[in-house]
Specification:
Blueprint lengths: L5 H20 L6 H13 L2 E2 H8 L3 H13 L3 E5 L6 E5 L1 H25 L1 H12 L2
Antiparallel strand pairs: 1-3, 2-3
Amino acid sequence: MSSPCICTTLRSASRRMAAFYDEVMAPVGVNIAQFSLMRTIKRAEPVTLTELGRLTELDRSTIGRNVRVIEKLGLVTLGRGKDQREAVVQITEAGQKVLDDGAPLWDGAQQTLDERLGADTMRILRTLLDSL
């Protein structure tokens, strides 16, 4: 091959980035994927699993599994919406505490990356990734 595979490079960078954020978020007891999911739920709540899947770009079965993990942690509740066939997710009081306590940790991680890579590089990186 004449050049490195961009997919492989992005996957490797993604794993390193997730590990960095997971370490930062560990004090609040969730990983970055769970924290991000909870933030999406909070912004949209009450939100159906179907809508949550659309917002996170995950299929319905994957989002259901991910929500059940944080439900078992007591961070969200699953209930029935107006359409009794659809499950609705909401943040619990414990979940709100994780969001409140985790926000400064997440902000610190963002600042660390801005300092490590530079604000201009981070802006370019976001633009490039958003264009995919």
